[in-house]
From TrEMBL:
Source organism (scientific name): Lates calcarifer
Domain of life: Eukaryota
InterPro entries documented for this protein: Ig-like_dom (IPR007110), Ig-like_dom_sf (IPR036179), Ig-like_fold (IPR013783), Ig_sub (IPR003599), IL-1_rcpt_fam (IPR015621), IL-1_rcpt_I/II-typ (IPR004074), TIR_dom (IPR000157), Toll_tir_struct_dom_sf (IPR035897)
Protein name: Interleukin-1 receptor type 1 isoform X1
Taxonomic lineage from the root: Eukaryota, Metazoa, Chordata, Craniata, Vertebrata
TIR domain span: 413-639
Chain ranges of the Ig-like domain: 146-238
Length: 657
């Protein structure tokens, strides 16, 4: 009996390898007669059995040529097959047996071939042993093989049967030997493409829509030529119909998306999978990051996953929803710019979906909103402050920056203001009004502030026509101060009964000297008006009012300042000329009576203490002419600006507050 030595040798092996090979060949001479006396590493009987029937071909394959056993790519080795019943080496027999390295082929199986066959792999220094069992069953006369492989078909859907001869096909492909396959249902040959059946590939039979009658035995037969012998090998499948089924899972979320999140925040993303079918599917869901499975399920871990939740639905499509959350309790820099993949594992396939986590864009809305909010608040505060302290702000600005305002002395005007007030024998005249116009205004505006006023009754030239005087002096003035009471613009004295009370109120807030003069003049005034029921406005008062309103409202060449000495009721205001009411509503009036009322409230406590000290004698505080009072601030606000900047007529002022 001849021993066959085969192996793979590296062309670069040196003298040591060559010497080892010689010793290896010499060592075989003493063990070619059997395998019993050898002390080899025993891998015992393979778990996988080979089943066959008489007349078929059978393939026994050893698993000893594996990197798990030895490095077969560099170490020379020899493979020998033995029959365990006789202990003799298996050799090629024409038409019966073919030995091809780690594979033992039976070209025509008989019942006598049933048994165990031993493979021994020898290297220069060691040997390995393994047994493989061939089971030969007798034919029963039925179509198909006695031993069947169980496979299931899902009722109502397209499904497949897989031929168990894939190992045979792979081995034949390694030999470059062509083969063909046929499918049978029972004894009937299934032609590719007929009815519901089609061959998807060499190993798969497709059934378009499974029905209960599709159960039964299916046989796949592989035919090929090996060692000059044409033979076949067959496997039978026992197909059973199952109502519970599941199709290819569909990963709905994530869907190849980009998600942005802020570093340091918590983050969660669900993996949502829909499995069409009936019943509970055997599907697993796993999250993968950086090619590693995320198996942590404890919240104590920074990155972990939840348990898979399960929910079955019947409409609109039958199936099951599976959901599993990926949770990151605190995002760190290393969590960004990577793909997180959700993969579902099932017998139908392994579909997956992923998302990419990126850091969130800088939140410019918050700072912009804060800036805009701050600007808005500052603007509102500024508007409120300006509204409440407008007069003070403007007066301070004029005082600090007079150079920004033009010098009015070069505009050709003679007076800063024209004072129009009820003259003697005119409606609305009283001693208090005359005192205010002839004494109070000049004392403050002229003496304290340096303004130049034109006051009728004081500055009129003797014999000068009233019309010419009014027209010329108003034209020569930069402002017009219209001083009025509640009865100034009424045609009858009795229509302003409230005016007398207001005049008495004014007189009570005057000083002692003014009070005594008021009593004398009131007596003469009452004597003048008792003789007639109607008293009309004098010509000068009418001309002043008409000229002022025309220039202020029509031409816009004159600014009129309304100086209100008494509180005006709505009924009294209704009797005013429409032009005065319009101007009062548009720009307001400077109210002397408010100033007196405030002084009266503040001075009531002082007067009571003085009355107690003087034994109950009536004492009054004189009106204050302080420039810091609200009334005089408003008067200065409406008066022309006394600037220092000199400009030519064609230039305009920088500010005109």
């Amino acid at each position: 009996m001849t021993c066959h030595v085969t192996g793979q040798r590296d062309s670069t092996m040196g003298l040591t390898s060559a010497l080892g090979s010689v010793l290896f060949v010499l060592g075989l001479s003493g063990i070619c007669t059997g395998f019993v006396q050898e002390n080899c590493t025993n891998y015992k009987l393979q778990f996988e059995r080979i089943y066959s029937v008489p007349g078929d071909m059978a393939m026994l394959n050893s698993t000893l040529v594996s990197p798990d056993v030895f490095n077969f790519t560099t170490v020379p080795y020899n493979i020998t097959w033995y029959d365990s019943k006789t202990g003799q080496e298996m050799s090629n027999q024409t038409g019966r047996i073919l030995v091809k390295e780690e594979t033992l082929w039976f070209l025509n199986v008989t019942l006598d071939d049933n048994g165990e066959y031993v493979t021994i792999v020898r290297t220069p220094f060691r040997c390995y042993r393994q047994a493989t069992k061939l089971i030969v069953d007798s034919l029963t006369g039925e179509c198909g093989r006695p031993r069947k492989v169980d496979q299931t078909l899902m009722n109502g859907v397209a499904d497949t049967l897989s031929c168990p001869l894939k190992d045979y096909m792979s081995k034949l492909d390694s030999y470059n030997i062509s083969s063909s396959i046929k499918w049978y249902k029972g004894c009937e040959h299934i032609v590719d493409g007929t009815g519901k059946y089609s061959y998807r590939d060499m190993t798969t039979l497709m059934i378009q829509r499974v029905e209960p009658q599709n159960n039964g035995s299916y046989t796949c037969t592989l035919t090929f030529t090996l060692g000059g012998i044409t033979g076949s090998v067959s496997e039978t499948i026992d197909a059973r119909i199952r109502e519970v089924y599941s199709l290819v899972p569909q990963v709905r979320e994530p869907a190849s998306e980009i998600i942005k999140a802020e570093i340091g925040s918590s983050f969660s993303k669900r993996c949502l999978v829909f499995v069409p079918g009936v019943g509970k599917p055997f599907v697993s869901i796993l999250w993968i990051a950086r090619d590693k499975f995320i198996r942590n399920t404890q919240p104590s871990d920074r990155v972990y996953t939840s348990q898979t939740s399960f929910n079955i639905q019947d409409v609109p499509d039958k199936g099951a929803w599976l959901e599993r959350l990926l949770i990151i309790s605190e995002l760190r820099e290393e969590d960004f710019h990577i793909n997180y993949t959700c993969r579902s594992y099932s017998s139908r396939g392994h579909p997956e979906g992923y998302f990419t986590l990126l850091p969130a864009d800088p939140n410019i809305i918050l700072p912009i909103g804060s800036v805009l909010g701050g600007v808005t608040v500052l603007f509102i505060i500024g508007v409120v402050i300006y509204y409440l302290f407008k007069v003070d702000i403007v007066l301070w600005f004029r005082r600090v920056f007079p150079v920004l305002y033009t010098n009015k002395d070069l505009d050709g005007k003679l007076y800063d203001a024209y004072v129009a007030y009820p003259q003697r024998c005119a409606v609305g005249f009283s001693k208090e009004v005359e005192t205010f116009a002839l004494h109070t205004l000049p004392q403050v505006l002229e003496k304290a502030c340096g303004y130049k006023l034109f006051i009728a009754g004081r500055d009129c030239l003797p014999g000068h026509a009233v019309v010419d005087s009014v027209e010329e002096n108003i034209q020569a003035s930069r402002r017009l101060l219209l001083v009025y009471t509640a009865s100034t613009f009424t045609s009858k004295r009795h229509t302003s009964s409230t005016s007398s009370n207001n005049n008495n109120h004014l007189s009570k807030n005057s000083n002692n000297n003014e009070n005594s003069e008021s009593k004398t003049d009131d007596s003469s005034s009452s004597m003048s008006f008792n003789g007639s029921d109607e008293v009309y406005q004098d010509t000068r008062q009418q001309l002043e009012c008409m000229a002022a309103m025309h220039r202020a409202l029509v031409e816009g060449s004159l600014k009129v300042v309304l100086v209100e000495l008494e509180e005006i009721t709505p009924a009294q205001l209704a009797l005013f000329p429409e032009s005065v009411r319009h101007l009062r509503k548009k720009q307001g009036a400077v109210c002397w009576w408010k100033y007196l009322r405030m002084r009266q409230r503040r001075g009531s406590g002082i007067r009571r203490r003085e009355d107690e000290g003087k034994g109950g004698q009536d004492t009054q505080l004189p009106p204050s002419h302080s420039l810091s009072s609200r009334f005089w601030k408003e008067m200065r606000y409406y008066m022309p600006v006394r600037g220092k900047r000199v400009i030519y007529p064609e230039k305009t002022a920088l500010l005109n507050l």
